[in-house]
Amino acid sequence: MAKKGRVKWGVLGAASIAVRKVIPGMQLGELSEIYGLASRDHFKAQSVARTLGIAKTYGSYEELLADEHIEAVYIPLPNHLHVPWAIKACEAGKHVLCEKPIGLSVEEVKQLIMARDRAGVLVGEAFMVRTHPQWVRTRGLIRSGRIGELKAIMGAFSYFNRDAANVRNVLEWGGGGVMDIGCYPIFTSRMIFDQEPRRVAAVVERDPEFRVDRLASAILDFPSGQSIWMCSTQMVPYQRMQFFGTQGRIEIEIPFNAPPDRETRILVDDGFDVFGGGVAADVFQTTDQYTMQGDAFSRAIREDTAVPVPLEDSLKNMAVIEAVLRAGESRQWEDVRV
Fold first, then answer.
1. 266 near 253, Cβ under 8 Å?
2. Does a structural domain hold residue 1?
3. How far apart are CA 22 and CA 9, in angstroms?
């Protein structure tokens, strides 16, 4: 008999995104209960648990995975630990929601798919934008023909971080901007075009000390059009996505880090006034995208339905990430290979 009520979640690690955003968001949900938190530093786990009101702590990830009360695991660990611990969670019979990027390579994602299938659990990637109302609305407007035929996407995502101790600046751990934030314009371009890019061109600049990519510009060549975007880990914080059609344009003001404490909006432009007279705003009530993500995954567990971002989608996204990084090295068009 299927279980009812809230899904009991365990969290592997006390990463900043988990403590500041994901755990508080999931705790507001109707279907998700953060039951336990594990850290290799048990004192840290206990401190975070007290602050966030989490009932149980563990001094190791293995201990959490062995707890029969835990039904699902959220993994916010550094990139190179995503697939190894997701596989261990699968083998322990736990459902898995893993931070993006799901792995370091296409081959890793294939290994995780096999582990998921052997265990018969649900595994998904934490692209929280999938369920946010502003993205649902944008996708619906474009599919309905509101801006005519979609022909081009333009995006930018940047922040400044040159901390040598930060995991995003460690090449061997999957650091760099394309893995960390370039994955978002890749994912959302694929989602909005509802197609896969055939080939990719890119220019990539690397930090001379860390060797991670700190500035990348890419062109994704889709059957129906193009996506052009830039990401950087050493520039002014900024993010924006725009969608250009034959009869209009849509702009998402805060596409990726949508705030949980204020309204968001998208701008729909009919294109007839360059001064913005034809722009109308769609405003969305305050919502926490991590609450929505957690409950959507928990609902999939309870109802045995598909998770918002299944591994088959993650595999295709990782293939584009790999192609962008290859193109940055070759300075030539690179085919997308799954």
1. yes
2. no
3. 12
> pLDDT per residue over 267-282, tens digit each?
999 998 889 899 999 9
For residue range 167-179, list pLDDT tens digits in order: 999 999 999 999 9
Residue 160 neighbours by CB under 8 Å, 6+ apart: 233, 234, 235, 236, 237
**305 lies in which domain range?**
7-127+291-309
Q: Which amino acid is at 309?
A: V
DSSP, res 310: B
**DSSP β-ladder status, 32-38 and 56-58:** parallel
Residue that is written with structure tokens 């007839």 in the block: 272
Domain-embedded: residue 2: no
> The tokens 């997701």 sit on which residue?
86
CA distance linking residue 32 with residue 35, whole number of Å: 9
Helix (H) or strand (E) holding 90, with range, is: helix 82-91
Question: 212: which 2 tokens?
Answer: 């991670």
CA distance 17 to 273: 41
The string of pLDDT tens digits covering residues 108-141 is 999 999 999 999 999 999 999 999 999 999 999 9
Residues 70 and 96 grouped into a single domain: yes
Q: For residue 16, give the CATH number of its domain.
A: 3.40.50.720
Could you tell me if 116 and 221 lie in one domain? no
127 in Cβ contact with 253 (< 8 Å) = no
Rounded (10°) angle between helices 183-193 and 311-330: 120
Q: Are 224 and 193 in contact (CB under 8 A)?
A: yes
Residues 109 and 86 sit within 8 Å (Cβ to Cβ): no
Place of tokens 């502003």: 134
Distance CA 220, CA 17 (A): 29
